[in-house]
């Protein structure tokens, strides 16, 4: 049952993404930029944390 719910959720997200891209490509580009900035910030934070740990956690 959970697999079917997951498939439906993925399908709904894909349809929504296509709808946004088709109806307003400029805003879709902004969403992609925001998402990649968030991923970049998260990766930077993990790297800073790992460096802090490697330095002894001071």
Question: Mind explaining what this structure looks like?
Answer:
The chain is mainly alpha-helical and 58 residues long. It contains two helices and no strands. The chain has helices at 2-23, 25-54. It is flat, with a radius of gyration of 18 Å. The model has no long low-confidence stretch (mean pLDDT 90).
For the biggest sheet, the summary is: none
Distance between the termini: 48 Å
Level of helix content?
Answer: over 70%
Q: What's the total count of β strands? A: 0
Radius of gyration: 18 Å
Shape: flat
On the 0 to 100 scale, the average pLDDT is 90
Number of helices: 2
Oligomer: single chain
> What is the element string, with H for helices and E for strands?
HH
Measured by DSSP, the beta-strand proportion falls in under 5%
| Poorly predicted regions | none
SS class: mainly alpha
